[in-house]
Design brief:
Structural class: alpha+beta
Radius of gyration: 23 Å
Shape: elongated
Strand content: 5-15%
Order of helices and strands: EHEHHHHEEHHEEH
Largest sheet: 4 strands, mixed
Mean pLDDT: 85
Oligomer: single chain
Distance between the termini: 22 Å
Low-confidence stretches: none
Number of strands: 6
């Protein structure tokens, strides 16, 4: 299923077939809802829903650096002289928090980019520019869509809610096979301002 406001890069069809063969050979095939051909990196940043995870890793980093410094000081006299308590405090309480802040400021897609290939993306996937559905699930998809026609759901929101309810798995091919074009959308009667920012930067890094 492809919307009419997209461009496809050369060779998209063989790459899509290869990705589908990979999924069909995996354990995911029994719970597969779709393979996403487009996604926008804008929703793959540091999401507030995962703040506990970010805080946990920051604390782990702090404790790791602190233990390494204290361990090195206790083992080697020369390091103990070079790292008095003030230096350890500056490293752990000033330098390390500054480094962690810069890490987050750089953006998730800068420091943790998705590697090329097929990735599971059950959360934060957007938008509905292009999907490949297994043939077996199409009748259920059509039935579910008809039932929700009177509800105020966007297509991607409808799919995500259905997948969450039935624990269906969703995958994406990186880099994106499609690129969204245009600054206007039929959503919201043409006044959806997000259309102009619905973009995949990885698509632009590939040859046409």
């Amino acid at each position: 299923m492809v919307e009419d406001d997209v461009l496809a890069r050369a060779g998209w069809y063989p790459e899509a077939q290869q990705a589908l063969h990979h999924l069909q050979a995996s354990a995911a095939k029994d719970r597969l809802l779709y393979l996403r051909m487009f996604y926008t990196e804008g929703l793959l940043g540091w999401n507030s829903e995962e703040w506990v995870r970010y805080l946990g890793w920051s604390i782990v980093s702090f404790l790791f650096v602190l233990l390494v410094l204290l361990g090195a000081r206790s083992k080697w006299t020369r390091i103990h002289r070079a790292l008095p308590n003030l230096n350890v405090a500056v490293i752990c309480l000033v330098s390390l928090p500054a480094f962690i802040s810069l890490y987050f400021m750089a953006g998730r897609m800068t420091v943790q980019p998705l590697a090329p290939g097929v990735h599971e993306m059950n959360r934060f996937g957007c938008c509905s520019q292009g999907f490949i559905f297994p043939r077996a699930i199409v009748p259920r998809l059509v039935e579910r869509t008809k039932k929700a026609m009177d509800e105020d759901y966007y297509v991607d929101m409808l799919l995500e809610r259905w997948a969450d309810a039935e624990i269906l798995r969703r995958f994406v091919l990186v880099p994106s096979l499609l690129q969204h074009v245009g600054s206007k959308s039929s959503k919201g009667w043409g006044y959806d301002e997000s259309a102009g920012t619905t973009w995949n930067f990885g698509f632009e890094d590939r040859s046409p």
